[in-house]
Design goal:
This protein has about 220 residues and is mainly alpha-helical. It has eight helices and no strands. Helices cover about 80% and strands about 0% of the residues.
């Protein structure tokens, strides 16, 4: 029991250390992402925590952001759709980026790509979560400040994603930008194939159901 407790404390300590390291990655992206993957200073657990916090922030924005800056009609809000709409692009980007970079001499693994995306979302949490509550203290005239800060956090995340692709795959800036663009196209293609497959399965199921009903009608 004592050994198990010690291991748990070590694990939590490591997760806390790798989670704090996200602050360094956010302010020193090139060195941070290099050490994150090559020096093993990051962890999947910390990346998952950041992603969960970003998702939580995204949901909280709907509930608690001042109505002056975000008008939400709750009867049209589907929480499951919001959650999937946040998580599915992350999954697709990991798969598409890994699949494409294996063809272009990328050095990153699926695990490293996932960590890179997770750590790149740190500014989103650090900036947009406090802005949820700050928005309730602001007037309409101060709205420009609110939008500028939120846009700044998104640009910061974008810069971190570019840095992550560069460091994880050992790419130049130009190759990283091309890779990100192709990754987006790959995600769109994956979504199209999934929708096409879902449509075919739905049509096939409808055909067999109608055939079954026709047989019942004719013989019974």
């Amino acid at each position: 029991m004592n050994i198990a407790g010690t291991l748990k404390r070590i694990d939590y300590s490591h997760i806390g250390k790798t989670l704090r390291y996200s602050l360094y990655v956010s302010t020193h992206p090139l060195d941070g992402f290099w050490d994150l993957t090559h020096e093993k200073r990051g962890s999947i657990a910390a990346a998952n925590i950041i992603i969960i916090l970003a998702l939580f922030t995204n949901v909280m924005r709907l509930q608690y952001t001042s109505f002056l800056f975000m008008k939400v009609i709750w009867e049209y809000v589907n929480i499951a759709r919001i959650i999937l709409g946040f998580l599915i692009p992350i999954v697709l980007s990991c798969v598409a980026n890994w699949a494409l970079t294996t063809l272009f001499d990328g050095k990153g693994t699926m695990k490293q790509i996932h960590m890179g995306i997770g750590y790149a979302l740190t500014p989103y949490v650090l900036i947009q979560f406090p802005m949820i509550f700050i928005s309730n203290l602001m007037t309409m005239e101060e709205g420009a400040f609110y939008y500028y800060i939120n846009t700044f956090s998104e640009i910061w995340c974008g810069i971190l994603i570019i840095s992550a692709v560069m460091m994880i795959h050992d790419y130049s800036l130009g190759k990283a930008l091309i890779t990100i663009a192709v990754t987006v196209l790959g995600m769109i293609l994956m979504i199209f194939i999934f929708l096409l497959f879902f449509s075919l399965v739905t049509d096939a199921a409808a055909y067999f159901i109608s055939l079954y009903k026709e047989i019942l009608f004719r013989f019974y």
